[in-house]
Amino acid sequence: MGGNYIEVIFTLPQPGSIQQDLLIAGLGEAGYESFLETEEGFNAYIRQEAFSDGLLQAAIREVPGDSLGYEIKLVEARNWNQVWESNFTPVVIGDTCRIRASFHEPDPSVPLEIQIDPKMAFGTGHHETTWLMASWLLELSLPHKKVLDMGCGTGVLAILAAKTGASQVFAADIDPVCVESTVENATLNEVPVQPLLSDIDALPYSGFDLILANINRNVLLDHLPFYAEKLNDGATLLLSGFYQGADLEAIRDRAGECGLTFTETRSRNKWAAAQFRK
Question: Which CATH number is associated with domain 90-277?
């Protein structure tokens, strides 16, 4: 990316929440090109000549809640690569998996590497929920398994499933930018992933042995009946994108109503992941 950019650094009360999703959607419509996850929220980038404070304020006004904070910075062209490298450092999961950008050097000491160029889609391994899902996925036996990554973002989980032996991997999202990002990242990693621009209720496939969904709590609650319908008997559902406590309890209760059995939960910095069986 050439030229000067404006960086807007957002601090949110609940990073990864529906507030964040709505804000990113609004900013995307306002011309923002890239987003990077942070522990406090996310950073958004737009070309300096395309920046409008009025459009920024309009996007913020459309988001419920008033406790988000933001800071605006100018990123000069000569510093752009430095900004990416300082914000997107490689993520190592256990001793076996390293998630990096294409501008990072490979590390031959790590058995499994995934290259991700996030662009406007989320999922680099930095956020606790992506880390939880990826680390759990590494423990599963995937050969001969049919896998769905719902709400795929960058496609990082779908790519990881393909790299660890799944026979069929589908990656679905309602955002065409995410589907495009998944296609590009799957090509970058030389793995077969079938992209789908679809929500779960319109998905033309079923009979999955594993469904992965790292989405926010409210969407997961709506999706759970469809996950149950599309899973094979004895299949596994891995969910994240919500907090411990009340969020997890709501997910567990709704899953039970849909005939899914809760088996385990894990957490990282108050974020939770949960496993269910059909």
Answer: 3.40.50.150
